């Protein structure tokens, strides 16, 4: 962990330009990174905060094919929407670029060529899946099939979203092309691979030893699991028609794999910023006194903690990340956010329905951030945090101070008289808060930091409630001058301390208090005279102007109804597809003989115990009485069922499936599941009460 760096390079995960930005993106990556960057600038630090649109993923090609347009049309459309959303929510990038930009193509090509010339790649001819009907090799996301680990029949060629396993497309059972629906064939093709296994010792020393105590447990644990499982060479090129050309002879028709080119986008975005600002980009990436921090979601941990560092290490001149404070996922009203199912709160739509309330959403997402585990956003919680915290605590304090100052002193900060012990203690406590909030932010605990910010507003409310200047004004007006002076210092401190979290509120509060020059945090910590006597704050026109407005039940119900309509539409779409004669939920698999079926030993069982697999959101560890024994089975059903609700459940178990080790737990079988019309997992189990455990199914 770098102490006292000269500068900071902060990156935020490049969003795919295949759709707009929703609250999950904001909560997971962009608000935390913005809080951190704004905080550092308030400390007077040298900060470069970069991001950009990721425009070469297979998801872009899939979206373009689906909509019948070119990939360029897709990326241009969504790059504009995404940029506006970031701007509207105050995400303070120093530069936001695009991976389709020439500077990025040049930078990524140069990076590849450097590693190629050094002999860091392995060149191999391998068998890849090929769609003969479409006449093209199939990138991972253009293949679906059965996961060899959990049996999920809709696993992608790079990952099974049911059990979380990382796959190769050739691992899938019964693979199908998503382009034509055809079964692909194997065809030879040449590609270049980054030999990750060469970097195992380096990664063990750098992360497992060097960052054991300062990286978040969820990040460290996932990285350790990958390294302990053994690293293998990973292809850096793909047979695609969209992306960056591989810059070597014999690579015609091949593109850089998106996972290789996308993180280099941070470097090319930095170069773009430096060229525009007349600065040198290299110290921000190559000076050992620079602190590099990647803000990402948990689905990008492997790429930013193993693969990109291996690339930087191989190149040789770049620094490595000091920290990668990845967040977990945010769910919406109890369900996983889904772009395809429109189960999301889109940022551009939010501002249409809650105009000028960006900070309310920033506050709600930060106070409920999925920092160590998946969290759930609900509209009722959003309303409660606004009404009970922002309005009732923060806004109420500021309103009191502004109204009373205008009422008693015509908006002029009064000259204080002798400070009482309460005054001294209050001002002393106020001075401590910058360090307290800083400590939380420096450790990437933004929820904790926001809570401490609200404690400053609580300090102000308590001070006024205890001192009661509205009563004291009748008997001791000299004392009220001191009370209001102290209260105004707290208000001024809030205008600075809230800026990383609530930038629009900070601007508005500074305008109300007529603070023209931003107050830095060191001044708050060292000085009790943040807003001096004789200073004119906003006049009567600001009295009664609220920082935050109460959100009524009707507004929230409208959002809940909107989601319910989405849920109904999704169900109707599934039902309609099921009723369509041309629709087949799953094609019939190839014919088998009776002897093949007879090999399967299917038994009736009962779930005796169930618990979540540590650090795995989709897996449950089950103890099942199969009638012949009590065994452990790991099942990827945690997102559909809680452990408590399935204890005692009758299930069908394939008991003679070869054991498989999943995250250190040996799974001794598989339970049978299906999906209903709404896509929900359903147990396939006997419905007769008198069927005992161990009875065979044949």
Topology:
Layout (H helix, E strand, L loop, with lengths): L6 E6 L10 H20 L3 E8 L4 H10 L3 H18 L6 E4 L3 H16 L4 E10 L4 E2 L5 E4 L8 E2 L16 E5 L7 E10 L5 H10 L7 H12 L5 E2 L1 E3 L14 E3 L1 H20 L5 H4 L3 E6 L5 H15 L14 E3 L2 E2 L10 H7 L4 H10 L7 E3 L1 H31 L11 H22 L3 H22 L1 H4 L4 H21 L5 H11 L7 H6 L26 H27 L14 H5 L3 E11 L7 E6 L4 E6 L7 H4 L3 E5 L5 E3 L2 E3 L2 E2 L1 E3 L5 E3 L12 E2 L1
Parallel strand pairs: 1-2, 1-13, 2-3, 14-16
Antiparallel strand pairs: 4-5, 4-9, 6-7, 6-8, 9-10, 11-12, 14-15, 17-18, 17-20, 17-26, 18-19, 20-23, 21-22, 24-25
Describe this entry's structure for a reader.
This protein has 698 residues and is an alpha+beta fold. The chain has 21 helices and 26 strands. The strands form 8 sheets. Strands 17, 18, 19, 20, 23 and 26 form a 6-stranded antiparallel β-sheet that branches. A 4-stranded parallel β-sheet has the order 3-2-1-13. Strands 5-4-9-10 form a 4-stranded antiparallel β-sheet, with no helix packed on it. A hairpin with a 2-residue loop joins strand 21 (660-662) and strand 22 (665-667).
């Amino acid at each position: 962990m770098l102490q006292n760096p000269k500068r900071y390079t902060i990156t935020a995960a490049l969003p795919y330009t295949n759709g707009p930005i929703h609250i999950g993106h904001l909560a997971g990556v962009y608000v935390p990174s913005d809080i951190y960057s704004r905080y550092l600038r308030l400390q007077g630090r040298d900060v470069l905060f970069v991001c950009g649109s990721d425009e070469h993923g297979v998801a872009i090609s899939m979206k373009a094919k689906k909509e019948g347009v070119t990939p360029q049309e897709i990326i241009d459309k969504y790059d504009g929407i995404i940029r506006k959303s970031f701007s509207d929510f105050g995400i303070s990038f120093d530069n936001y670029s695009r991976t389709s930009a020439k500077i990025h193509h040049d930078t990524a090509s140069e990076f590849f060529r450097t590693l190629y010339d050094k002999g860091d790649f392995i060149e191999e001819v391998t068998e890849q899946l090929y769609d003969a009907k479409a006449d093209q090799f199939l990138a991972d996301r253009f293949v679906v099939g059965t996961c060899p680990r959990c049996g999920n029949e809709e696993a992608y060629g790079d990952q099974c979203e049911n059990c979380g396993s990382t796959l190769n497309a050739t691992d899938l059972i019964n693979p199908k092309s998503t382009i034509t629906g055809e079964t692909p064939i194997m065809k030879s093709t040449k590609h270049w691979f980054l030999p990750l296994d060469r970097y195992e010792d380096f990664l063990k020393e750098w992360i497992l030893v060097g960052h054991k105590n300062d990286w978040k447990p969820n990040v460290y644990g996932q990285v350790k699991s990958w390294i302990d499982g053994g690293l293998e060479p990973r292809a850096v090129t793909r047979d695609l028609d969209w992306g960056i050309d591989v810059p070597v002879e014999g690579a015609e028709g091949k593109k850089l794999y998106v996972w290789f080119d996308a993180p280099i986008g941070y470097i090319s975005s930095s170069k773009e910023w430096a060229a525009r600002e007349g600065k040198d980009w290299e110290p921000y990436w190559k000076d050992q006194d620079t602190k590099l921090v990647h803000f990402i979601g948990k689905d990008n941990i492997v790429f930013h903690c193993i693969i990109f560092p291996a690339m930087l290490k191989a190149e040789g001149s770049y620094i490595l990340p000091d920290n990668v404070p990845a967040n977990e996922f945010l769910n919406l009203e109890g369900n996983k956010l889904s772009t395809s199912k429109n189960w999301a709160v889109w940022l551009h739509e939010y501002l249409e329905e809650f105009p000028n309330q960006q900070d309310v959403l920033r506050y709600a997402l930060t106070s409920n951030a999925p920092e160590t585990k998946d969290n759930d956003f609900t509209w009722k919680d959003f309303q409660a945090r606004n009404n009970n915290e922002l309005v009732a605590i923060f806004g109420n304090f500021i309103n009191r101070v502004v109204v009373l100052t205008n009422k008693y002193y015509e908006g002029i900060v009064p000259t204080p008289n002798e400070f009482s012990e309460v005054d001294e203690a209050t001002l002393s406590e106020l001075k401590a808060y910058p360090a307290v909030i800083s400590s939380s932010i420096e450790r990437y605990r933004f929820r904790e930091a926001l809570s401490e910010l609200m404690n400053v507003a609580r300090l102000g409310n308590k001070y006024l409630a205890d001192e009661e200047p509205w009563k004291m004004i009748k008997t001791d007006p000299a004392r009220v001058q001191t009370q209001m002076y102290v209260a105004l210092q707290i208000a001024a401190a809030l205008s600075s301390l809230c800026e990383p979290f609530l930038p629009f509120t900070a601007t508005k509060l500074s305008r109300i208090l007529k603070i023209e020059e931003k107050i830095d945090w060191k001044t708050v910590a060292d000085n009790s005279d943040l807003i001096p006597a004789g200073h004119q704050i906003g006049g009567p026109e600001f009295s009664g102007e609220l920082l935050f407005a109460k959100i009524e039940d009707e507004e929230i119900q409208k959002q809940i109804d909107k989601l319910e309509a989405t849920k109904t539409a999704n169900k109707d779409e599934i039902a309609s597809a099921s009723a369509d004669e041309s629709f087949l939920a799953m094609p019939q698999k190839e014919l088998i003989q009776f002897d093949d079926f007879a090999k399967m030993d299917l038994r009736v069982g009962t779930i005796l115990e169930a618990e979540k697999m540590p650090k795995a959101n989709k897996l449950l560890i089950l103890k099942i009485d199969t009638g012949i024994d009590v065994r452990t089975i790991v099942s990827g059903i945690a997102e559909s069922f809680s452990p408590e609700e399935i204890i005692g459940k009758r299930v069908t178990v394939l008991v003679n499936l070869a054991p498989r080790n999943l995250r250190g737990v040996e799974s001794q079988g598989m339970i049978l599941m299906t999906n209903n019309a709404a896509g929900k997992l359903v147990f396939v189990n006997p419905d007769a009460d008198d069927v005992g455990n161990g009875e065979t199914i044949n």
